[in-house]
Predict the 3D structure of the following.
Amino acid sequence: MKALHADSKSDALAKMYEQSFTGMDYFKPGQALETEIVSISRDCVFVRLNGKNEGLLDLDELRDKDGKAAVEVGDPIRVYFLKAENGDMRFTTKINGSNAGAGMLEQAFLDRTQVEGLVEKEIKGGYDIKIGEFRAFCPYSKMGERRSDDSAECVGKRLPFRIEEFKEGGRRILVSNRAIHEEARLERLEALKKTLHEGMVISGPIASIQSFGAFVDLGGVQALLPVSEIGRSRVEDIHAVLSVGQEIRASVLKVDWQNERITLSMKSLLADPWDTAAEKFPEGSKHAGTVARLAAFGAFVTLEPGLDGLLHESEISKAGAYGAKNGPGLKVGQSLTVQVIGVDQANRRISLKPASSVEEDATASKYLDGPDDTETYNPFAALLKKK
């Protein structure tokens, strides 16, 4: 009975081995396989199939720039079936012109496998792409991560594509290079979701600049730095403070994964001038300022970056300052001296009124403090003293 049991077990193992081997017949040209590397020889890489069987591919596909193997035994790898040859199951890591047959391209279309093609020339509406002995069409709208001003810059290059249409045995093939970029972007976005969160501080280069803000590259995913979040002071010309390629440091203000929007702020990393406004600008103190903007009720005067006070129209009229009889008479960018009436730190408001400058005060003090009974008697100073 024991011998019979042993024979049955041997038969079962033999049958399993036979089934695993015959299972190789089910591989179709272009079929993808997620597996691992089991050994590396001088010229070939061997990958695990089912059972004890192994597939092989050329090591040249996996060499680094120095000609050395860029993989190790045990590394996971994605390969595509080429053909059975002399008892070997041959695979490749990419489908390109040297191995792309009709069967492989059709399988690549069904599996959405990436293929490599040569951009031969521009034609009406897009590009003529050569993949092996087959020709494909890539519309302008499907080439590159975004539309380029130089449509001919990709001609002559070998680029990855996704087959989006395969008809008539390969006589009609439509491909997209942009789909590859979009898939890579989504992968980077998913990776970023695991590490990025509101409040964290990041660094990155400016990728592009618009009138409303700058886009910052976060490892292939772009975040918006609004113009209002660049600094404490008002930015009139964004190009005057930022440039493409400039490395910036900012905090993550808001993350909206649903709409794929990341908002940054450089301003939040700067000290808030309102925290010390009451101490730096006490009631009655005089300061030099600059008119930041005009309103119907007065003018906002910048005392320091990020801190504006209101010079109310009634205060201008009361003092008869700046040609008040003919209107405010102020211009944006004008320098002037103001006096602090009050500071409402909680509501971030400072009230101002027109004031004489420090130089004017010094001149007046000289005349007021001087003697009036000497040969240099000044009737103007005496008049001021009487007041």
Remarks:
- Residues 1-24 have pLDDT under 50 and may be disordered.
- Residues 372 and 382 are 7 Å apart (CA to CA).
- The first strand starts at residue 32 and ends at 40.
- Residues 273-355 form a domain with the OB fold (Dihydrolipoamide Acetyltransferase, E2P) fold (CATH 2.40.50.140).
